[in-house]
Amino acid sequence: MVGMNRIGPRWCGGHSGLLSGVLRAEWGFNGIVMTDRITYQTADYADILEGLEAGTDLWRNTSDRIYKLRGGQLTYGVRARFRTAAGRILQTVSRSNAMNGIGTETTMQYKMPAWKILRAVIVGIAVIISLPCLWYALCQSKRAIRAFKKLSDAKKRYQRGKK
Fold first, then answer.
1. For residue 24, is pLDDT > 80?
2. Domain end marker among 74, 99, 124
3. pTM higher than 0.85, yes or no?
């Protein structure tokens, strides 16, 4: 991950001496280089075209309005740099631990993680415990309705007896 700081007048993600020279050529790094989070404040100096040319592969944007390349900006050179960046991304993912053991005969199967099974069991137990509580609440509300009806009937009889 390149920082948003500068080396001289250039930001780290657009510094070809740092990324292409030192990181890739001298140290032999062949993975993904990505930016830190690009905001409206940093978008002024963190130029995507400069970064692509220097060797930055991924940008972390905060808005879809930052770094929209249009028409004349998408030259053949820019498209070639995007293809190079996409190639490095694909190589990194295909050689990652996530792909270990995957061959031509491999089939993907979904296996529910233990925490999801535990969560389902806990929810089931909570439902089973809450059902008697719900039944008790309904019985109490019926009892309260009956008591209210008796009270209102007694009040009506009292009102009739007063007249």
1. yes
2. 99
3. no
